[in-house]
Design brief:
six-stranded parallel sheet; Rossmann fold; alpha/beta
């Protein structure tokens, strides 16, 4: 039995969520859902019972008939997080007025696994909660099998890592607690021309991977843009050193890595590579033509027959992968249950996919003659 407590003064929304969640989760778990309409009632329930999953409205009344406020909810979840009430590994905040919680937004985000925009006319937020429940159930099964998992995220030069927080928040809902963010040393947009700066960051990432491998059975590496180059070079070095790494899967997106890279060395060691590409990522044309050692596999895909390499194509530009839905449906399942979902939204375009990209590849390959890998 999987126990869920919904704390929401909008009783119609709470009852709708109860019905929908039971329906959406019936194929993989039996859930028991209770509802509280105010913080006083919620405290009584949390003192007497333990719940696997908490869904909390961001604006709640203290008792029936009171006006709902953010401070009431904050005091409740603060007691939960400080152990004064029975806690849950997963606490999801919901609100129909996401812009009205700005005064407590940071505090809520620190305590809640994630805060969802829960309009009564939409069921998208319920779908996301059902998805988080499934992921948590899957992770409970993993824990029973004693598989310790960890992730490391490596952002691009100008993505500033907002997507890393999104991914970490989504994985928090599953119970995976080992999430390391890699930050560069001395890097800016011009640094991509410097082999010395790249090598310094590659060595730093190698050390991080090795340290996580000492504690985790499976490691998943998520990287974007220039971070994909740093990641793959670090992994190659670790493999050549024959050092313990425990890397299961490398997920690269918007990758600036060149087609000439030695992917076989990675896949032959048993590591899977998921290459997420965007159909309109024209930024990578510049990478291929102008920047030493770099290419555009984040646009074209990796040319390989290896069953350990998966190319996926979605619509959009260089940062198209950072949408909450994509992270939940295509990244999180890789970590939770090693599920790599296929997606290919490419449309035939003879000019771009044929003539233009062949011309860009030709020019870029001439560039590579003058620079060592």
């Amino acid at each position: 039995m999987f126990n869920v407590l919904i704390i929401d003064d909008n009783i119609k929304r709470a009852q709708k969520a109860e019905i929908e969640l039971k329906n959406k989760t019936k194929n993989f778990v039996t859930i028991n859902i209770q509802i509280s309409e105010n913080t006083n009632d919620a405290e009584r329930k949390l003192k007497n019972s333990k719940y696997d999953f908490l869904i909390v409205d961001i604006k709640l009344p203290k008792k029936k008939g009171d006006n709902p406020t953010e401070i009431n909810t904050y005091k409740l979840i603060d007691k939960i997080s400080n152990g004064k009430l029975n806690s849950s590994e997963t606490l999801i905040g919901i609100t129909s007025e996401i812009n009205e919680i700005k005064n407590y937004k940071e505090e809520f985000e620190k305590i809640c696994s994630i805060v969802l925009d829960a309009h009564s006319f939409s069921t998208k937020w319920i779908d996301r909660i059902a998805n988080h429940i499934k992921q948590k159930i899957d992770f409970i099964k993993i824990k029973e099998n004693q598989i310790k998992k960890g992730i490391i995220t490596i952002h691009g030069i100008r993505s500033y890592g907002e997507w890393q927080k999104k991914l970490h928040d989504n994985l928090s809902c599953t119970g995976i607690d080992e999430k390391k963010r890699f930050d560069y040393e001395i890097i800016n947009s011009l640094s991509i021309f410097s082999k010395k700066v790249a090598q310094k960051n590659i060595r730093k990432l190698e050390m991080l991977i090795k340290s996580v491998a000492e504690e985790k059975d499976e490691i998943y590496l998520f990287s974007h843009s220039f971070g994909t180059y740093i990641t793959l070079k670090a992994v190659i070095n670790i493999i050549e050193e024959k050092t313990k790494h425990n890397i299961s899967t490398i997920i690269i997106s918007g990758s600036v890595v060149d087609q000439s890279f030695n992917f076989d060395k990675i896949t032959n060691s048993g590591i899977k590579i998921v290459n997420d590409c965007a159909t309109s990522d024209y930024t990578l044309y510049l990478s291929k033509v102008f920047i030493p050692r770099l290419g555009m596999i984040g646009k074209t895909g990796i040319n390989s027959f290896s069953n350990r390499i998966t190319n996926r194509f979605i619509n959009g530009g260089h940062s198209a992968f950072f949408d909450d839905d994509y992270i939940e449906n295509f990244w999180v399942p890789i970590v939770v249950n090693n599920e790599i979902k296929d997606i290919d939204l490419r449309k035939a375009n003879i000019f771009i996919n044929g003539y233009l990209e062949k011309l860009i590849s030709f020019i870029g390959n001439i560039k590579n003659i003058f620079f060592k890998p």
